[in-house]
Write a structure and sequence with these properties.
Layout lengths: L1 H20 L1 H36 L4 E5 L5 H13 L3 E7 L1 H11 L3 H5 L9 E6 L4 H12 L4 E6 L2 H42 L1 H9 L4 H44 L10 H30 L1
Antiparallel strand pairs: 1-3, 1-4, 2-3
Helix pairs in contact: 1-9, 2-7, 2-9, 7-9, 7-10, 9-10
């Protein structure tokens, strides 16, 4: 066990010494890896925050039921009774057309124009908060309410939210595809870099093989090289992600204040950084393994 640990320690120290001597190329490589990893990570974080924001908006989603102008008091009472018995309705509020007109006059910039109207153009309305915000449940409830006598129109306020949510779902899939493509590109770049390192130390490898060095002994430094490339790139990606989100939040907070909101871009830094580092290390190790495998087959 001690011999095995000593061999790994020697390989790691050898690679660190090589990286130190070639520090400029090392910095460039890990920077490329870091930037490449940071781009899809940033887009993913933004989409996740957008999904959270939409979920919060959906909590205030209402369904508006507008009655026909000629609807009688009996129709209104029957609708009230029907709504009170619906198990899929959390609560509802009835707003008579007189109250709606008064509220409109209080909020408009030209109340004289509304006061000059011969009759009230607004209908009676019910504002409903459904228990389920699932699109299918909302559609079913809308259909059942639309069939009631005296109902002119049923409007779901979350229609635009559902459309935006569908767009964000497509965006999430696009990010995964984009991230996978960038991951393959990183593997190709790191693998090619390590193959160049193998060619640089070709004579050293051949001498080691003449002295009976095993394939694992020869592979080990290059596997450590790929791992350290991945680790360095992951650290750069984490720092870039933190810095970019910090800059974004400076503008987001200012915009949110204009809408009396405290919304900011949130991220679980510990979990996100852990995943990013693990992914970058796996990519680096896999690229090194492929480079060594290709070298062995071509030898």
């Amino acid at each position: 066990m001690h011999k095995w640990l000593n061999q790994h320690q020697q390989a790691a120290m050898l690679v660190i010494d090589r990286l130190r001597k070639q520090w400029l190329s090392t910095v460039l490589i890990i920077t490329v890896i870091g930037v490449t990893l940071a781009i899809p990570s940033l887009i993913y974080v933004i989409l996740q925050n957008a999904n959270t924001l939409i979920h919060d908006v959906k909590q205030d989603t209402q369904m508006s039921v507008f009655l026909q102008k000629e609807a009688s008091q009996a129709n209104t009472d029957a609708i009230k009774t029907h709504l009170s018995k619906q198990a899929d309705i959390a609560e509802f509020t009835f707003v008579p057309k007189e109250a709606a007109l008064k509220q409109l006059m209080e909020t408009t910039n030209n109340p004289e124009l509304i006061a000059s109207l011969n009759q009230n153009p607004l209908p009676h309305a019910f504002f409903i908060t459904p228990k389920s915000l699932q699109q299918e449940a909302m559609a079913t409830l809308k259909t059942s309410l639309q069939d009631l006598d005296g109902v002119a129109e049923v409007v779901i306020d979350s229609a635009w939210v559902n459309r935006l949510n569908s767009i964000l779902n497509i965006g999430s899939k696009a990010v995964w595809i984009f991230g996978c493509l960038l991951g393959f590109a990183l593997i190709a770049v790191i693998s090619n870099t390590i193959r160049m390192q193998i060619l640089t130390h070709k004579e050293e490898i051949e001498v080691s093989e003449l002295f009976g060095a095993t394939q694992s002994f020869i592979r080990r430094p290059f596997l450590y090289l790929g791992t350290l490339y991945g680790l360095g790139g992951g650290i750069i990606a984490c720092l870039l992600l933190w810095f970019i989100l910090y800059l974004f939040n400076l503008s987001v907070v200012q915009l949110a204040r204009e809408y009396a909101s405290d919304f900011t871009l949130q991220i679980n830094f510990s979990a996100t950084y852990l995943y990013m580092l693990a992914l970058s290390i796996i990519i680096g190790w896999l690229a090194a393994y492929l480079a060594i495998t290709l070298r062995t087959k071509s030898a």
